[in-house]
Amino acid sequence: MNSRQRRGVILLLLSVLCAFAAFVGVLSVISDVNSKVGPEVAAYRLKSDVAPYEALRNDQFEKITMPKRWLSDNAVTNLSEVGGKVAITQLRKGSLLQNDMIVKRPALQPGEQEIAIMIDAATGVAGKITPGASVNVFATFAAESQGAAAQSKIIVSNAKVLDVGKLTALEPNRDSKNQATEAVPITFALKTLDAQRIAYAESFAQHVRLALVAPGSDTTLRPGERTYELGKDK
Question: Which of 37, 40, 114, 218 is the most exposed place for a label (fewest CB within 10 A)?
């Protein structure tokens, strides 16, 4: 083997070594990226706003992929999880869907309907009323005319609570100094007449309060118990 051939063999070996070193370097970079990013998983992003208690549909979401380590443990990674569920609160376009944003749609009995109202967090809920609880709904009304008495009424007795939403800040009303500053959406399962009573109370009553009913209590109202006036309290 002459000197030119030896130089050729040496250059060839150097080229092989350089290629191998570059290959090892690429593998090292890929391994480093994988160790920092990790495998990717599916997640679902909202394509539009979703109102509270609105039933969820698959076409409201778009599938994206992102590193698993960057995804919270509550993230929904399988769209079948939204079947039969509703939004707990307002869901915003572009948000990643989380399990704590949705709940299973409560089952209604024949003749019942869902109705949700905002209840003053300080006087009406206090964190003790939960889905499945039974409550009496009280409403207070101002006197309708001069000389008439203000009244407190049990608008609905033994109302079934389907869901308790998240605490929501209310816009201040300059005309009402006693207006609640925070409220919680409460969803009930009610017959038509009771749903109308609830809607009326929310619209026209000065205050609406909930009273938790102990399990097993007799919820039958005796004559005169539905309406209270201070002047008649002897």
Answer: 218
User: Which of 181, 187, 210 minimizes the C-alpha distance to 88?
Assistant: 187
pTM for the whole structure: 0.52
In sequence order, the β-bridge partners of residue 120 are: 183
Query: Both tokens of residue 78?
Result: 């399988």
More confident residue, 8 or 174: 8
Nearest to 72 by CA among 41, 115, 102, 93: 41
DSSP category for residue 55 = B
Contact 191, 198 (CB under 8 A): no
Rounded to whole angstroms, how far apart are CA atoms 177 and 191?
Answer: 34
- Written as one letter, the residue type at 182 is E
Per-residue pLDDT reduced to its tens digit, 113-170: 888 888 887 666 666 787 778 899 999 998 877 777 888 899 999 898 888 887 777 6
- Give SS3 for 172: coil
CB 134 within 8 A of CB 211: no
Tokens 């572009």 identify what position?
Answer: 94
Q: If you classify domain 40-104 with CATH, what class do you get? A: alpha beta
Q: Is the pLDDT of residue 37 over 70?
A: no
Phi first, then psi: give them for residue 185, nearest 5 degrees: -75, 125
